[in-house]
Write a structure and sequence with these properties.
Mean pLDDT: 81
Structural class: alpha+beta
Radius of gyration: 43 Å
Low-confidence stretches: 1-29, 273-279
Largest sheet: 6 strands, antiparallel
Strand content: 15-25%
Helix content: 55-70%
Number of strands: 8
Length: 449
């Protein structure tokens, strides 16, 4: 009767005993003979080898290339041309040349300064003329010239606001890309870190299920002995055999899950070469990781999201982007008013050398004020009104995203607070179970006698 009572109590507590016992033996079987892979090492390998990480990082290079391309508007243009002309003009007063052959070589330099909207043009030209019959200067003569022209916008595009718009937007786009890439990279790494934790828990589950299966075998042997001694009924042996098969099935399932996650870890690390065994790596306790340590003190600050968070930087950049576009659209409504100043130095000589030295003695000056205004100007006005609406939409979206982020952060902080309380309760339960285990082990030894 005493043995039946002890056996019944043993059956109720054997699973708890086996679980705690297996936890104390964690590191046997698979982990004992495999190379330990810490979470920090896993993340470092991911950053170095994983194609998904490289894809995210390449976005920075794309945005940097687009910025470089937009700055090409400031690149100077050097051009040259060679013109050959043969003409036979009409004789009106009888002194015109009946035939004329002209050869002109021109080299020019043009540059736009987007920071001010100013345009600079330099040109050097040399024209050789052969006339028949000859004129006063002879049948052959040279006409060299040097020209400088400077154009400055005064209303529309003043300060180069239209010229540098694309550059300013590409600079902000590069900043946004870097910020968004950090968000994407953290999200991607977090997903893989969760995969690592699942892998670690799968190993613990595997060790526990294996140990529980071994305990079920011992339980079956003990029950068989008790049936032979007629201490318990024969159906208890069938129950013990059923329990053993159930734990064996769970052990095999845990083994498959762990092997599958191991292969998944290897593929994500990009280390699989077709010959790597699924049991060559084993996870370490993720609690020792340092790379994923969060700034709890900073995040818990009540104004974190609206002052120092990366989300705040992203939202501020979006608002700055809209303001820049709005200023450009407002300026585009102004009429074109451009001031242009030109100067030309030129001369003429029948000698090539003299034409470029002593005979380059004539000066031309020009000043031009150009004004253009499209009647109605509906395109510019429509673009401005559209941008005002876009700006309001972005501002509303920014406020909503900040509200959503604050709500999610508050929810997670509350859950984390309750989780800490639950973990403290779990620690107390483990302490009670450990103390109870000592008593159960004593009863277990008595039951084997």
């Amino acid at each position: 009767m005493i043995l039946k009572t002890l056996n019944k109590r043993y059956s109720m507590t054997s699973f708890l005993f086996r679980c705690l016992f297996s936890l104390s033996l964690f590191g046997l079987s698979y982990s004992a003979y495999a190379q330990q892979l810490s979470l920090d090492k896993f993340i470092q390998t991911i950053l170095e080898n994983n194609p998904g990480v490289q894809k995210i990082l390449v976005n920075n290079e794309v945005a940097a290339g687009e910025l470089e391309a937009s700055q090409g508007i400031n690149d100077a243009i050097l051009s040259s041309s060679l013109t050959l002309v043969h003409s036979e003009p009409n004789e009106i007063i009888g002194f015109e040349a009946s035939k004329s052959d002209d050869t002109q070589l021109k080299v020019s330099y043009d540059r736009l300064f987007s920071s001010s909207g100013r345009r600079l043009s330099l040109a050097l030209s040399d024209q050789h003329t052969n006339r028949d019959p000859a004129l006063t200067v002879g049948s052959q003569y040279y006409q060299p010239s040097f020209t400088l022209r400077l154009t400055q916008p005064l209303l529309k595009n003043t300060g180069g606001i239209q010229d540098r718009l694309n550059i300013d937007l590409k600079q902000l786009n590069l900043k946004l890309t870097k910020l968004n890439n950090k968000e994407s990279l953290e999200s991607y790494i977090t997903q893989l870190a969760l995969l690592y934790i699942d892998w670690y828990l799968a190993l613990r589950e595997l060790d526990i299920s294996k140990e529980v299966h071994q305990q079920s075998i011992q339980q079956e042997k003990l029950t068989r002995t008790k049936v032979r001694r007629q201490v318990v009924e024969p159906y208890e042996l069938l129950r013990a055999q059923e329990t053993r098969e159930d734990y064996y099935s769970r052990w095999q399932q845990a083994k498959g899950r762990y092997a599958g996650l191991t292969r998944k870890i290897q593929y994500q690390m990009n280390l699989d070469n077709g010959s790597t065994s699924s049991q060559q790596l084993a996870p370490d306790d993720p609690k020792s990781a340092k790379l994923l340590t969060s700034k709890q003190g900073e995040i818990r600050h009540p104004d974190y999201l609206s002052t120092t968070s990366r989300l705040k930087d992203i939202l501020d950049t979006l608002k700055t982007q809209q303001n820049i576009i709005l200023d450009a659209r407002r300026n585009a409504q102004d009429p074109d008013l451009n001031l242009s100043v030109g100067y030309t130095r030129h001369g003429i000589s029948d000698n090539f050398n003299n034409a470029h030295t002593s005979d380059l003695d004539r000066d031309d000056y020009s000043v031009m004020l150009e004004y253009k205004y499209p009647l109605g100007n509906r395109q510019a006005k429509g673009n401005y009104q559209t941008q005002i609406a876009n700006k309001k939409q972005v501002e509303a979206d920014v406020k909503q995203r900040l509200i959503d982020a604050q709500a999610n952060l508050s929810n997670l902080q509350e859950q984390a607070s309750q989780l800490f309380i639950a973990l403290e309760s779990t620690d107390r339960k483990i302490n009670y179970a450990t103390r109870k285990l000592i008593k159960e082990k004593q009863l277990f030894k008595i039951g084997e006698l």
